[in-house]
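User: I'm putting together a small comparison set for a docking exercise, and I want a reference complex before I start. The sequence is below, and the ligand is NAP. Could you produce the 3D structure with the ligand included, as structure tokens?
Assistant: Of course. I'll restate your input first, then give the structure tokens for the complex.
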Amino acid sequence: MKKALITGISGQDGSYLTELLLSKGYQVHGMIRRSSTFNTGRIDHIYRDPHNGKKARMRLHYGDLASSDSLQNMISEVEPDEIYNLAAQSHVRVSFDMPEYTGDVTGLGTLRLLEAVRRIGADVRFYQASTSEMFGDALPPQSEMTPFAPQSPYAAAKTYAHWVTKNYRDGYGIFACSGILFNHESPRRGETFVTRKITRAVAAILAGKQTHLYMGNLDAKRDWGYAPEYVEVMWRLLQHDEPMDIVIGTGESYSVREFLEEAFGYVALDYRDYVKIDKHYFRPTEVDYLLADPGKARTVLGWEPKIRFHDLVRIMMDADLELQGLDVPGEGKRLLAERFDGWHRWEDQVVSMDK
Ligand code: NAP
Ligand code: G4F
């Protein structure tokens, strides 16, 4: 049985990746942060009490990317075949408020993990969660050949982590890969990222719990895909013969305004009646236009996304309407049933903040 160690297992991607790896027969070890309340809402449905013996193929360990000792202890104890480094302070706007912390966790945290692998001499395949934010204001479309031009402390920290991953591959022969993933969303997306903020708000407005939605820059364009499809590429990348870096995105880009139109339009509302602008949500420097050139993923990994922008909005809208106990148009549910079978199910998609 292969063993995987996932940092950031409690996040959006960590939860989907865990389901995928369990479905492939892996034993999954996840690092979680100690907190004063439970922070495992996205993986509670998978968790089995280890006292139940054989059935418990997911184990959780306390640790933190800021703590080298916790990383070293975990790797020594688990002896993983694969490490997926998904943990990060992952919010771009927040990184302007907490630049030093973001650099420490998102940037240096990756170095700590790689250095632990090197010192222990672990024979392990390593995945680094790199990001399209590293391209910053580089002209679209962005590919593996596009020079980085980070526009935030988050993007600068991720660029450091990306280069250090390559350095440990080149310098020490570690099988280390970076997936340069464009934005990917789902019903499990954190509530303060723009897509989920919008779909939750539309549902809350329909439920009569909210009257307006305060937003920042509506003109920014993003290449939005569906998170479960993206975690599958993480796994595929580590199964390849050679370690490499790869861009993952849909090759289509839409503005935040278009997301608003689509989400409100799904339930026959006009976003202009509800959205107000609050400068608080603008960033000191913005990334205007991200658009992936996913050619290498297509040719080298045979990867092609099945869910695109319009489908994604419907999937997220159905989930948030359901959370509010409202009637669900059901187009998103139908799409998922049609295009996905197997490793993740509709009822596991919905994650409530109140959980
Ligand atoms: P997410 O939902 O924000 O999850 C981040 C995870 O990191 C959570 O499990 C969080 O734990 C954990 N974490 C934060 N600080 C930590 C620390 N100091 N030590 C250990 N764990 C810590 O992020 P995501 O959307 O799943 O993204 C996964 C990774 O891909 C991130 O590195 C992100 O930067 C990167 N990425 C994301 C996208 C995207 O569009 N989603 C695109 C490109 C790259 P808590 O639950 O305790 O907070
Ligand atoms: O949803 P966002 O906060 O995501 P952003 O900044 O693109 O970052 C996400 O994707 C990256 C991949 O490219 C990841 F690396 C990163 O970890 C994260 O997952 O914002 C998207 C756009 C931005 O241009 C932002 O200015 O939406 C704009 N926006 C407008 N109003 C808003 C809002 N963003 C947020 N979060 N909240 C708003 O009210």
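Residues 90, 92-93, 131-133, 182-183, 192-194, 197, 215-217, 220, 222, 256, 281, 283, 286, 290 surround G4F (ligand 2) (CB under 6 Å). The first strand starts at residue 3 and ends at 7.
User: Thanks, that's exactly what I needed.
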